[in-house]
């Protein structure tokens, strides 16, 4: 795959899956705007990427990926700096665990604001720019296996992820006439800085995953790059589950 001359936005990319997607895009020649709410994480991530590759370009813009004015700022920044917007990866999201019987409205609406609102309005702003350009583009949303299988204490989160997948399917109607593809990835258990804060996480998911290990961030990024590449120009409205087979048998970590 070659992304030379193509420009991308990746949200929630200060670490983990988003950072790895940015790294791979830049290594393959893309110009990338890396977003994270945490400006320190974002700056550190861009410094790391620049040290590893000289192929593409990467800069950061910190801010809340659920804010509509900031979303438009990201789109405008990419166009001003790189000339066009070709790829958007709506990776930003939050997980707020909580018992259904006591789950607070504040937690519920924040999950919906970031996971659903951030994805919807980023797709809207990006698609409007791609329509103006007239050369098509690729949108990629980040779902989760919890949008397919029930998981304790994640009712709101799982609901938001299932909705993201339906959004991608629905947008096929709106975006196909403009040669814009829209797909979703649903990662399973993945080793990231956040999940590894639990010392037992890797051991638990090694036992529960049919392939014998949780995903690495590279496993998810590899799938992401395929779906936003020219190799996937006839794939749209689809969700690709990357979980080592977990959803086939769905054993609970509890």
Structure write-up:
With 254 residues, the chain is an alpha/beta fold. The protein has one domain (7-196, 215-244): Rossmann fold. Helices cover 45% and strands 15% of the residues. The protein is built from 8 helices and 7 strands. The chain has helices at residues 16-27, 39-52, 68-82, 105-133, 155-175, 201-208, 217-227, 246-249, and strands at 7-10, 31-36, 57-62, 87-90, 137-142, 180-187, 239-242. A 7-stranded parallel sheet has the order 3-2-1-4-5-6-7, with helices on both faces.
Task: Give the topology.
Layout: E1 7-10, H1 16-27, E2 31-36, H2 39-52, E3 57-62, H3 68-82, E4 87-90, H4 105-133, E5 137-142, H5 155-175, E6 180-187, H6 201-208, H7 217-227, E7 239-242, H8 246-249
Parallel strand pairs: 1-2, 1-4, 2-3, 4-5, 5-6, 6-7
Helix pairs in contact: 1-7, 3-4, 4-5
What can be said about this structure in brief?
The chain is an alpha/beta fold. 45% of the residues lie in helices and 15% in strands.
Question: Uncertain segments of ≥5 residues (pLDDT<50)?
Answer: none
Q: Given the helix and strand composition, which structural class is it? A: alpha/beta
Taken as a percent bin, the fraction of beta residues is 5-15%
Strand line-up across the major sheet: 3-2-1-4-5-6-7
H/I helix tally: 8
- What's the SSE pattern? EHEHEHEHEHEHHEH
The domain count comes to 1
Mean pLDDT: 96
């Amino acid at each position: 795959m070659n992304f030379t001359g193509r420009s991308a936005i990746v949200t929630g990319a200060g670490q983990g899956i988003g950072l790895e997607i940015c790294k791979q895009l830049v290594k393959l020649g893309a110009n990338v705007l890396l977003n994270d709410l945490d400006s320190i994480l974002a700056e550190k991530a861009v410094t790391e990427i620049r040290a590893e590759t000289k192929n593409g370009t990467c800069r950061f813009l910190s801010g809340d990926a659920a804010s509509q004015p900031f979303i438009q700022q990201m789109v405008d920044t990419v166009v001003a700096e790189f000339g066009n917007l070709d790829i958007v990866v709506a990776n930003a999201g939050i997980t707020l665990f909580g018992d259904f019987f006591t789950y607070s409205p504040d937690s519920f609406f924040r999950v919906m604001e970031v996971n659903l609102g951030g994805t919807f309005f980023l797709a809207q702003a990006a698609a409007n720019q791609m329509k103006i350009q007239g050369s098509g583009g690729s949108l990629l949303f980040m779902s989760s296996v919890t949008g397919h299988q029930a998981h304790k204490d994640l009712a709101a989160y799982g609901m938001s992820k299932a909705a993201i997948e339906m959004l991608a399917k629905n947008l096929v109607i709106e975006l196909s006439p403009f040669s814009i593809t829209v797909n979703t990835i649903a990662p399973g258990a993945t080793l990231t800085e956040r999940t590894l804060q639990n010392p037992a996480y890797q051991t638990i998911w090694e036992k529960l995953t049919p392939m014998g290990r949780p995903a690495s961030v590279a496993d998810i990024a590899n799938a992401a790059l395929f779906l936003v590449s020219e190799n996937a120009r006839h794939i749209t409205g689809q969700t690709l589950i990357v979980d080592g087979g977990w959803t086939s048998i769905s054993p609970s970590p509890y």
